[in-house]
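Risk register update: the risk of archive-format incompatibility is retired. Evidence:
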Amino acid sequence: MNNKKQCVSVRFKPSDLERIERIARRLGARNSDVIRYAVKTALTRLMDLCDPRMGGQRLLPLLLGQYNELNRHFDLDADRLEGIINNEEIPEQNRVERTDIELLAMCALSPHYIQNRLQEITGQAIDADDAQRMLHQYLQEKYGQRQPDGDPSHSQSLQ
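Archived output:
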């Protein structure tokens, strides 16, 4: 394993660079320290995506918790999500159903889309203001969600 650091070039919007500079000044650090911190923090949060065997139902906690952010940066539609969640290494019994992946992809849309689809699937009345929480609850209940550490005793309901 090569521990030698490499220099990379990254483009930032002026507003992002200004924020980096403000944070660095406030912390008494260099801009590069703030950038490395941000990258390491993001990599830690997304670590499950490094393992191709981590997918299917086991990947749902990560995606449920961070879907809006991930979608904003990576434009994740249902087809891309399916490739990420149900890759070729995931056994059939651990896969997430396509209709549920489509529901997750709808998080980026109006809550009314989620509301209508969940009402079709569950047969229950759902308030549009509560649609995202109900989607998370539906997926957690259906797939028996665990927290990312894999310990079911740490499971939390999104109520």
